[in-house]
Each structure stands twice: as structure tokens, then as C-alpha cells.
Request: fold
Amino acid sequence: MKYLYKYIGFFALGILLFVLMISASKSPETKIKGEWSELAWEYEKVDKNEGADSNIKEDSNYVKNTMGQDLVIHKAEKWKFYPDGKLILQGEKYTKEVSWCMKGRGNILELKYDDNNVEHYSLTELSDNKLVLNFDTETHTRGIARLTFEKTN
Reply:
């Protein structure tokens, strides 16, 4: 009987610690709020062309221009997330307001545009000063683009 109480106590302590850790962490909706500046566009799963320059994958501007031709985010260098679900995409000579929300378990960022166009981004990393989003391109290029941001405020 003495061992039963020890096991129950140990199990209850583990559950209590787990609940405390979960409740102390910030939700993605809270962490993402604020202003984020674009650091880089990277392209994963690139088909390798032996004759091509091997540094193209590293060139963020080349990837951004090639893959983002038809995307609104292509022109945005700053993303400003507001608590009411409003997102301001700002670039040089460009500003666009869209709606945002978190889907799934807080790992999918959904952007809704005025023309009812919806885009989904996988939230790969979200810390106090770094945001990494992935999206699967459906254009003539094949692969996954990774957008990296740093918090500016």
C-alpha cells in the first residue's frame, strides 16, 4: 500500500509540472504580434542543375524574385501583426492590409486577402526575436520556400 501512494504521488506531481509548464508558455498568437522584418528567402528541395551557379540557392533576392512573382508577400519587407487579426505588409512603395489567424495547433498561419484569396504558411520556428515560415510553391518552380524574419520592436 505504501508503494501505491508513492506511485500516485509521483504521477500526480508529473501531471502538475506538465500543466504548469504548458500554462506558463506563450501562445503563438501572442508571440507573433508585433513588427517583423524580412531577413532571407531560402529555397529548399531544389532540383540540382550541374551547369547552374551553386550560389543561387543562397541568394535570397534571386529566390524571392523568382518564386514570389505572383505573391503579395513578394513585395513586403515588413510584416506588422496586430491583435485584432490585422496584418500590414509593408515594402518599398507598397502597403497592403490582410487578415491573419492561426490554425491547427498554432502551427499554421492563414492569410486572407480582400479578393478572398487564402494562403497558408507552416510556422516552423517562433521565438521572441525570430520567425520562420515555410510555404509550398505551386508555381513553375518546385519546392519549399523558407521565409526568415526578425522582430524589430
